[in-house]
Amino acid sequence: MVHVISYAVHCGQPVSGLVVAHLCHNPACCNPVHLQLMTQKENVAQQLARGTFCFSPRKRKLSRDAYPLIRMSHAYRNVNALSLAEQYGVSKSLIEKILYSNY
Ligand SMILES: [Zn+2]
């Protein structure tokens, strides 16, 4: 975020809705000559084109500790996948993966 401060000091407050992007592709750089305003969409497109886009890791929505309970509810209480999905707040397809594969 130092680059945003550098941009604000040297170039003025960034325009709302735009991000301060690095033209030099060095995230640590704060040289104002290397910084440019663009939309987040443009910034991500450039990062994807360069192969430097970093997908943030997705958080697991359901703890693996719940898997045996889900399998037992299905096997012994005959609770179907849709009901389990609603109960645990996850998709039916995730419940089916837990029930029918080694997920
Ligand atoms: Zn730079």
Question: Can you describe what's shown?
Answer:
With 103 residues, the chain is mainly alpha-helical. The protein folds into 2 domains: 2-50, no CATH class; 64-100. It is 48% helix and 8% strand. The chain is built from 5 helices and 2 strands. It has helices spanning 2-11, 40-50, 67-77, 81-88, 92-100, and strands spanning 19-22, 35-38. Strands 1-2 form a two-stranded antiparallel ribbon. Helix 4 (81-88) crosses helix 5 (92-100). The two termini are 38 Å apart. The model has no long low-confidence stretch (mean pLDDT 89). Bound molecules: zinc ion. Residues 22, 24, 26, 29, 31, 34 line the site of zinc ion.
Task: Pick out its properties.
mainly alpha, two-stranded antiparallel sheet, 2 strands
Structural domains: how many: 2
Number of strands: 2
Helix percent reads 40-55%
Main beta sheet: 2 strands, antiparallel
What count of helical segments does DSSP give?
Answer: 5
Parts with pLDDT < 50 across at least 5 consecutive residues: none
Give the gist of this structure.
The protein is mainly alpha-helical. It has helices at residues 2-11, 40-50, 67-77, 81-88, 92-100, and strands at residues 19-22, 35-38.
